[in-house]
Write a structure and sequence with these properties.
Length: 365
């Protein structure tokens, strides 16, 4: 509403009291400069966010005015203060701008507190991402910092070397690999064998040692500590006892006997061989028998006897008689079972039975 330039507008007593309470009495009643039209307006009650209107406010009217009143007119009030307005000391000064709805700035602040602006989905996502990044920076589980802080395209995979590709190449089963190998090739295959986990803790793979061609083939169970160090079978105390036993029946490992084991690598702590380890090494032993063609086989120990004869019987029930091992050519090789020299060192009373087994083997033609 445009006010006259010559004099202040007329107000009734109630309006004057209301103007005095909100601190605008002097501003309202002060005449405007000559030739300058002036209107009292304030900023909109609510920001343009679609939060709604002020209760009791009709578009085009002033809050608190009676229905049908003139837009821009000053409402009347019979109470000591106007609802929604701050005390007179906190009332803002009015601005001389084109005529708009009259309202006070404190209402804007109160409305903002009562109705906070809605958070957009993108802002929520940004906040959650910031919180997760902060957690990772504080050492909490998440994506490593090296990945979070990396810029540019991801690194290209490093090409594998020829050695890595050779390791990952499909392995040929031991039985197929040794099928056509001669004795020297078979020895090389045993030394390079990685068919089971025993290769990881060995010092030397023990292929065997003795006369070739041979009359007797002596088969033990697995290398011990001394055998693993030197790479030869039966070189410790058990080996010394075996040499003495063979010499008692006129046999020597240098001229008559070839000595080997079912397992070519030492089990950790001299433990018993596992079934999968025996299965991995058995093709080497069978190929040795096929190449050496011994007259007879002396088997020492339970695991060697059960592997070679394909049985789970005890050594006590297997010794004292002659067994037969069928060859690929259709022949048979006599097999004699006896106690392992390491067992005889722990149980000297069993040496008499071992002697009987040796005599049984030596009498065979």
């Amino acid at each position: 509403m445009t006010l006259p330039n010559a004099a202040a507008p007329r107000v009734n007593p109630l309006q004057r009291i209301w103007l005095r309470e909100i601190g605008m009495e002097r501003l309202w009643l002060r005449p405007a400069p000559a030739g300058t039209p002036q209107a009292l307006v304030s900023k909109p009650v609510l920001p343009a966010t679609g939060l709604g209107s002020t209760p009791g406010f009709t578009p085009g009217s002033t809050p608190g005015s009676a229905p049908g009143s003139t837009p821009g007119s000053i409402p009347t009030s019979t109470s000591g203060s106007t609802p929604g307005f701050a005390p007179a000391s906190a009332a803002p000064e009015m601005e001389a701008v084109p005529s708009q709805s009259v309202a006070a700035e404190p209402i804007v602040a109160q409305a903002a507190q009562a109705h906070p602006p809605a958070v957009r989905p993108a802002e929520r996502t940004s906040e959650r991402t910031s919180e997760r990044t902060s957690e990772r920076a504080n050492g909490r589980p998440g994506i490593p910092a090296s990945i979070l802080n990396r810029t540019g395209p991801p690194p290209r995979p490093v090409p594998k070397t020829a050695e890595e590709e050779a390791v990952e190449a499909p392995r040929i089963p031991v039985a197929e690999a040794v099928k056509n190998a001669n004795l020297d090739e078979l020895r090389e295959q045993v030394v390079a064998c990685t068919a089971c986990g025993l290769c990881q803790g060995r010092r030397h793979a023990v292929f065997g040692h003795g006369a070739t061609p041979t009359r007797w083939l002596v088969v033990g169970e697995a290398p011990g500590e001394q055998e693993d160090r030197q790479g030869h079978p039966f070189v410790g105390r058990s080996g010394q006892l075996l040499d003495a036993m063979l010499a008692a029946v006129g046999m020597s490992r240098d001229t008559d006997v070839f000595i080997t084991n079912v397992i070519k690598c030492r089990p950790p702590g001299n433990r018993n061989p596992k079934p999968e380890e025996i299965a991995s090494c058995s093709p080497y032993l069978m190929r040795q028998i096929a190449l050496l063609k011994p007259e007879r086989i002396l088997v020492l120990g339970r695991f060697a006897a059960q592997t070679l004869l394909g049985t789970d019987a005890t050594i006590g029930s297997l010794r004292g008689r002659v067994h037969a091992l069928k060859t690929d050519e259709g022949g048979e090789i006599p097999v004699i079972v006896s106690y392992h020299p390491a067992y005889l060192l722990r149980s000297p009373s069993e040496k008499a039975r071992a002697w009987q087994d040796l005599k049984l083997a030596s009498r065979m033609v």
